[in-house]
Amino acid sequence: MNKIILLRDSWFNSPCSPGSFAHLIGNFDKSGQCVVDFTQNLLVLHPDHLLSATVVSDSFSCTRRAVLQDRVKATSESSESQIHGHILHEIFQEAIKANRWDDEWLHKTIELIASRYLESFFETNIDPILAIDQLKAKATALQSWADVFIAPVPKGNANIRDRNGGQSTMCINKLLEVEEKVWSPMYGLKGNVDATVQIFINDKDDAKTLTVPFELKTGKHSNAAHKAQTALYTLLLSDRYGK
What we know:
The chain is α/β, with parallel strands linked by helices. It has helices spanning 53-58, 63-71, 80-98, 103-114, 118-123, 128-149, 224-241; strands at 4-7, 22-25, 33-36, 42-45, 51-52, 159-161, 167-184, 189-202, 207-214.
């Protein structure tokens, strides 16, 4: 029996051609047809060519920018916000690995990590002492977050909301990996996850343990690219861990 894949909605514009390799995530019905649309099934073209989840998520705002950023590496100097962001990522990863959030430990860790960035500080005319003081001030937010969400069971104030407005309590009760590199030929994606964690979610009707990605964003506002990146990492981890 011949098999037919029907592409609908925006899938209709997929650049399929004779000889293209594709991975269908879905099932054929009794007539040998499989419909791919907004509500069901997926079609991955050339799944062996793995795309970075970051590049895919950046394309939500501008497709050309995502391609150019991947192919043309930046040669300009780093900015102060970029340097602070890199350092905060390292601080968070060291803190969650050690599960230490007290002032003394965090301040020592900040000073140690900042010492590795002295060249970057001088390149961008940043006073290292002032930068360390600013990082110590920002560490307070990490401590407040950890006090609420790092726990064996969810605390009463550890509230989260889903996209439909539903509210649950959640805690991170186990760190599985830091900077985990994940490849998924099933979805044609790859990624480097800040932290892979085990969480426990408790809502009114259900309680469950999940393996999820954790991404630290140091900017003031979240955007569609951030949400898309986290969603794609969730897809990658579901393929790896089957959860």
